[in-house]
Amino acid sequence: MSKLGVLEDTLFVPMLGRIYASEYCPQILYDPKALELKKKLPSDLLGKGGQSQYTLLASAARSANVDQFIRTFLERRPDGVVVQLGYGLETTYSRCDNGHTRWYALDMPHVVEYRRALLSEPERETYLAGDAFAEDWIRQIRADVPDAPILVTAGGLFHYFEENKVVGLLRMLTGFGEIEIVFDTVSKSGMAMMRKKYMKQVGHRDAQMFFYVDSASELTGKIGSGVRVLAEEPYYRHIPRTGLKLSTKISMSVSDRFWMVKMVHLATE
Question: What is the pLDDT of residues 172-194, one digit of tens each?
């Protein structure tokens, strides 16, 4: 398997969160594939170390939120295609596939190589190696499915890039037909909290973070014409909290109260 860098190494964080949720909080997320992969992960990763229940479930909540957007999209558009950017070791296909949808999963070449060593490509999911901020991948997909509606997800990805790169990517997608984009993001205050506390707890204090969104409508203004906001909602709005530690419940409530972390859903026009 390839050696992963500081940024790519963060791909283990959501996997550990999904394993934890599946074992202790399945009401939030149950991921049989993640449990199956547990024995294949490096042994030194399996101890949660300095992570709290909150930081572990923050990763699982992202997957649960993205799952809900995907399921709703496929209910509305059964002819739709799902594209996941910065896919890492996600196992969304095994949780959300409806039996006929085409899926694409994009990440950097060495991450895709690492993924293939753990997970072979399912029947209708294509692994793509490349740069999420270049046009190659969307051109390839549009060649495969010229007219299909596409849902692009970017879970846990945009934080690590400068705003101009993210805005450029979103602007680029407006030129490729009917596309919806779902991603998680933080507010400016949420970014400060993640830099100060969250990234240290998950063991990645060296990973730099840049992109935040205080207002989805302000973001679309920076993108320009051709995109609209479908949803902007607090991160934990739909996450059940029964049985969680009090400290976890408080952290989730504070986050939602001040919109520190959110889900954003955009669509091209």
Answer: 999 999 999 999 999 998 888 77
> pTM above the 0.70 mark?
yes
Of residues 170, 188, 190, the one with CA closest to residue 180: 170
Q: How far apart are CA 35 and CA 199, in angstroms?
A: 24
What CA–CA distance (Å, rounded) separates 145 from 149? Answer: 9
What is the domain range of residue 167?
6-268
- Mark out the alpha helices in the chain (DSSP H runs): 6-9, 12-24, 32-37, 53-76, 92-96, 109-118, 136-144, 163-173, 188-193, 199-201, 216-223, 246-257
- Rounded-to-integer distance, Cα 26 and Cα 269, Å: 37
Q: How many domains does the chain have?
A: 1
Rounded CA gap, 181 and 192, in Å? 25
Residue 1 domain-assigned (yes or no):
no
Which CATH number does the domain housing residue 102 bear? 3.40.50.150
pLDDT in tens, 18-69: 999 999 999 999 999 999 999 888 776 665 556 899 999 999 999 999 999 9
